[in-house]
Amino acid sequence: xxxxxxxxxxxxxxxxxxxxxxxxxxxxxxxxxxxxxxxxxxxxxxxxxxxxxxxxxxxxxxxxxxxxxxxxxxxxxxxxxxxxxxxxxxxxxxxxxxxxxxxxxxxxxxxxxxxxxxxxxxxxxxxxxxxxxxxxxxxxxxxxxxxxxxxxxxxxxxxxxxxxxxxxxxxxxxxxxxxxxxxxxxxxxxxxxxxxxxxxxxxxxxxxxxxxxxxxxxxxxxxxxxxxxxxxxxxxxxxxxxxxxxxxxxxxxxxxxxxxxxxxxxxxxxxxxxxxxxx
Length: 279
Prior knowledge:
Elements: H1 14-41, H2 51-67, H3 74-83, H4 88-118, H5 120-127, H6 132-157, H7 161-186, H8 190-211, H9 214-217, H10 225-257, H11 264-278
Helix pairs in contact: 1-7, 2-6, 2-8, 2-10, 2-11, 3-6, 4-6, 6-8, 7-8, 10-11
């Protein structure tokens, strides 16, 4: 049997390797911190919103963190598999994995849609929403959040750090610019800010998709769920437990203190604390 062809990267000198490392790591630090700052600045739109609407928006952001728990381990798993795809066979396996996981996460999202439809009145009550629009936009955001780590992992595994950074910046910039425009110019409230979140994520996912489109068009090998899940589940459980606890307080406070916007000061303080931890 003939050996599988491999693709060897060009060799680099020690100096060029060092410069490349510092250039890429510096860019990723700038992009990550910049994206986080842009996302935090969205909360200054609260000055043009009622306390009730801002508190609802802050709690919905934490709900999104819950909804994306199934995807927490995807970026690391795809980064590992993509970096190891140095033969045609492994590349075909990667193509099959991308398609299967996108389909699987879409099914998880459909289950969320069903829950949102069946429990919409209860969700409106818990989050003190003034309309169903904010809820449906949040559900749409969840799909983008489930898919975003897939493309981030592909970019990271390919060492395409330029676009990995731009994906993060597009997410934050789209959220801030579009959300602020809707709130300040069109007098939008929680639903308006959630539109900005959705549009920013669409831009980020679209950029990641465009840079990885060849992995969706190539020949796909059959996907074996078992070994892949053994890799992903530990990440998901560990990171998911942290994210669940990290986000739960805002939802609980909004449920019990949300009437009349009483939860707004707590939402603002919690957001600042999370920003400090994330930084």
